[in-house]
Write a structure and sequence with these properties.
By secondary structure, the protein is mainly β. Helix content is about 10%, strand content about 40%. The protein is globular and about 45 Å long.
């Protein structure tokens, strides 16, 4: 379960990404166009310490871009190259926002979701004195099944990232390939994470797990 707070965030995630995303090697779309949110969903960090969001955005009329992010209450040691920036959250205070490719918690959670056939987290939004369930705009699914495969990569260290499309996250137990411009439908083969969002009826591959 992902517990979210309705609060002001400055700068917003899209504003933060607007100063970072156009300079990635895999960026596609007009560089001077503003970013729009296409869809998003959350994963659970079992330890409850790190926010994990799978975010799809678009620059102008460019293609959909896959930009997973992690949110932390303190800097992640050794991950300065993956820092997108910081935001001020009206409830949680300063949040350090990272390209999730460089966050070992994301690597561990993503591998586990793919191996076990997991899905996005249930999102519960705190509004005043109420807690309401929010429907995700992005439906995620791993291709595996419950109890499938060996343990994923550890929570700290042990990853090596190669930028590009796909972005490759090397771990001690295999590699994760993040598709940055997702468009290929899932053919039913391989260990993958797929997503569906408004206007997309056939699940599209967002990430692959290679042993």
């Amino acid at each position: 379960m992902a517990l979210l707070h309705r609060a002001e965030i400055r700068p917003t995630k899209l504003e933060l990404l607007g100063g970072w995303l156009p300079y990635r090697s895999w960026f596609a779309g007009p560089r001077d166009a503003g970013l729009s949110r296409v869809a998003a969903a959350r994963f659970d960090d079992p330890a409850g310490a790190v926010g994990i969001e799978v975010l799809l955005v678009r620059a102008g009329d460019g293609p959909v871009l896959h930009v997973p992010l992690t949110y932390r209450g303190a800097p992640l040691a050794g991950a300065g190259a993956f820092l997108v920036g910081t935001t001020e959250h009206g409830v949680l205070g300063t949040r350090w926002v990272y390209d999730a490719a460089g966050d070992p918690v994301f690597a561990a959670v993503l591998a586990e979701v793919i191996r076990t056939g997991g899905a996005q987290a249930i999102e519960k939004l705190v509004e005043d004195d109420r807690v309401v369930v929010r429907e995700p705009s992005l439906l995620l699914r791993g291709s595996g099944g419950p109890g499938t495969g060996a343990a994923g990569p550890g929570r700290a260290g042990g990853i090596e990232v190669t930028d590009g499309d796909p972005t490759v996250i090397g771990t001690r137990s295999g590699s994760l390939h993040l598709v940055r411009t997702p468009s290929a439908p899932h053919t039913g083969s391989g260990a993958v994470l797929t997503g569906r969002w408004s206007g997309v009826d056939t699940p599209v591959v967002l990430a692959r797990l290679a042993g």
